[in-house]
Amino acid sequence: MRMLGIVDLLFLLLENAKQPMHVAGICVFELPKHSTSQDEAQYFAQLLGQADVDSLPNFPFNQQLAGLFWQKASRFDWHKHCYHHRLQTGEMSELLEKVSNLHEERLLKDRPLWQLHLFSNLQPEHENAPKRFALYLKIHHAVLDGVAAMRLFQRLLSRRADEILPQPLWSRQIRQRQSSFVRQNKSFLGHLTEQLGSITPVLAELKQDYKLYRQGQTEAFIGSLQAPPSLFNQKITTRRDFLAIALQKSRFVEIAKTLGLTTNDVILAVCAYALRAYLCQQNALPSKSLIAFVPISLRNNDTALGNQISFIPTNLGTAEEDLLVRINKISQSIQAGKARMQRMTQAQFINYTAAHYAWAGVNLALRLYPKKQAFNLVISNIPGDDNTPLYLNGARLSAVYPASVLFDGQALNISFANYQDRIDFGLIACGEVLPNIHHLPELIKQGLEAYENLLFYNKTPIKD
């Protein structure tokens, strides 16, 4: 048995009917060419474990809550975790609608906290392209965060198209550096020493922040009261809308090279364009710039599971009409946050973030002031595999659309994953309080085109 971490416990406490606390993703696969209907039926049965009903799940799929501890589940019924749905039209819109409904549902705590849904009969991406299917995997945020989920999923796949693994996904051994897929445990004394040692450096950073705040340097330091009220900061309902769009990564890279910025800066700027354009369409653009919380992984390696994240508050520059001024503000804000992070140890940075934003966590937990938030939304980068194609028993992974959680006062979340030459955006929104939010993926596409038009084609940018 392992004791729950503080962050794990927080995600369990935050959960209610309106706030399911699971991370998830849609993974789209292309079936091997010349697959027959019989081949597909056998393939799907094996994938879900129907062909091997005696298979037992491996870590972390075997972890079940026992009070304040995780323990290995003594029984497992795959019928309660694995589901097969056949799409009627095969359209991507049908898949997103069905996944939106599934994303609204909480995971039951009397069993391991995950589900795997297989959607067959997904139409080919274009004429003469291979047949496709999709997997929707959701797992509780108390078990792991989005980055860990992506790392885990990648290591359950193969880098060879001809490799066939007989076990279902959830019973496979994690084959690469398996021993490091554990939580990093320290003794109580070790934790206490680390926390006491962080006090002086954190106080020094807080003192410097106060100086920057007094000087009005809002790119170098973002206070916990700086985010303006916005349409995105309303009380939510149980409704979830899963939206998705894929764009070519090389287009972002080319813009970044031209401006001397990072690809991540460009992606955030494109998101900022879309958010500003959407709010303008709703006649609801705040006079002050939106603030995004950008999660930063605190892992010492890329294999540890659990929740090991902190956040950099980022000025999205949405009050700026000029695209170049806006993207430079974003870059300056990110660089200031990273510089601050690099000056501190992991424990110091976590305590620093907590000192600034503890009230925001209490606000989210108790839902006291949903219109007054420390940030307007979360925009997450879920690192993927840049170059190597991945396979699931011969089926090639072609797209990964990540999805995260919403809170009262946080009605929109944007996550994106890079896989080969793609940036796949997964957006989770509460459409009941955000009118016409289904326009946002198209606005992200327009944002990328606006920067390309400005830099490469000497065209007037699309008005945002």
TrEMBL record:
Start and end residues of each O-acyltransferase WSD1-like N-terminal domain: 6-267
Signal peptide: none
InterPro entries in alphabetical order: Acyl_transf_WS/DGAT (IPR014292), CAT-like_dom_sf (IPR023213), O-acyltransferase_WSD1-like (IPR045034), O-acyltransferase_WSD1_C (IPR009721), O-acyltransferase_WSD1_N (IPR004255)
Superkingdom in the source lineage: Bacteria
Keywords: Acyltransferase, Glycerol metabolism, Lipid biosynthesis, Lipid metabolism, Transferase
Keyword presence, Acyltransferase: yes
Domain called O-acyltransferase WSD1 C-terminal: residue spans: 306-450
GO cellular component, one term: plasma membrane
Family annotation (Pfam families): WS_DGAT_C (PF06974), WS_DGAT_cat (PF03007)
Gene Ontology process terms (BP): biological process involved in interaction with host; glycerol metabolic process; response to hypoxia; response to nitric oxide; triglyceride biosynthetic process
NCBIfam families: acyl_WS_DGAT
Family named by the database record: Belongs to the long-chain O-acyltransferase family.
Name listed for the protein in its UniProt record: diacylglycerol O-acyltransferase
Taxonomic source organism: Moraxella cuniculi DSM 21768
Taxonomic lineage from the root: Bacteria, Pseudomonadati, Pseudomonadota, Gammaproteobacteria, Moraxellales
